[in-house]
Please model this.
Amino acid sequence: MGKHIKFFFEQSWLLLVASVFFGICLAGLNAWWEPKIIANEIQKFNDLAGGLITEAEKFEPAEVLTIDVGKGKTVDTEVKKALSGTDVVGWAFITEGAGFQDKIKLVVAVDKQFNKLRGFGVLSSNETPGFGDKIKTEDFYRNQFIGAPAEKFTLSKVGDDKKIDSEIVAITGATVTSESVVDILNNFISQVKAQMKEKGLI
Amino acid sequence: MANTNDISVSKTFIAGLWQENPVLRLLLGMCPTLAVTAAVKPALTMGCSVIFVLICSNIVVSLMRNLLKPHLRILMFTLTIATFVTIADLFLKAYVPNMSETLGPYVPLIIVNCIIICRAEACASQNGLVVSIIDALGMGLGFTATLCVLAGIRELLATGKVFEITVLSPVSQDGWFTPWAAMGMPVGAFVTLGLLLGLVNLITKKQA
Model:
């Protein structure tokens, strides 16, 4: 037995020492950079949500909700209240779902009563350049959600994109991505709204 | 007169840039080459990350080359490379968050980039510190330069811009250039890389 243990350490001592050393280095660097990484994420959320609820001065965490995203999977999303002074002027939260190429993460903002959408901002997406990635830049698509009822949206390929209602006109050449955004919003808005009502937040 | 060591060092450096260019001659690191070359900025960031990982892993492997057990060496290389890739990934997330998001999973995927493990095995585990660093620098710069050339061509044809600066005035801004959206997509990466490889083969054939 002792012979085996000796052989094990003779063979692998460098690997063990290197693992411990590299592990300590990574733990140290992670502890150093983690606050900055978290601050970057909060900053990005605040920038996007602040652009949607312009009267908000700051965003404060309100509640963490568990959302069913299908196929037996759930994700936790933190709902933040948008504050102007001490008054709540709206709510914002992160939503996510499958896009055409990769996961799409959106920041969604709604009004104080959760009746109308204040819009969405793209937190992260790797959709096709020139097509699906237009969800970040195409104002006509994004503007259709601003002031729209916070209910179930439907997607159509043709229609009046100036009319603010629950019918959303897709981006030409990016129907799948447009549909993904609508599906993500439909899934999260209904569940977040129901859970917030349950908890007496709205 | 330059001594043999100087010649060997300079040859090692130049080899990475041209004769043994990892992308154009050895066809290594194809995944990031195709995936992150839609624009010059992400390509340059990826190149710099690879240079950092290559230099650091070559230094560590070269320093412990006499202590390596042959049957455990790949494990040691992977452990070393994974450590430096994690450092690069954390650094990008902390200081260049937008670029980290653009590159997505391709920074962590440097761990399985054949260039790094190839240089650790072929050079760093058999040579001293100086040669290993020069080799890493040459290979890293060769990789970065190729990525930037590829990304420059694709970004120019896909958007009319290079480094996000307008070079060809697009039709949407009353210009004459119609952007080729396909060049920003995977098909554009394959076509451009294929043409670039063909051009390099033509040049090297003429030199031979």
User: Anything to note?
Assistant: The mean pLDDT of chain A is 92. Residues 84 and 107 of chain A are 19 Å apart (CA to CA). Chain A touches chain B at residues 11-12, 14-15, 18-19, 22, 25-26, 29-30, 33, 36-37, 40-41, 44, 102, 124, 126, 128-131 (CB under 8 Å). The radius of gyration of chain A is 22 Å.
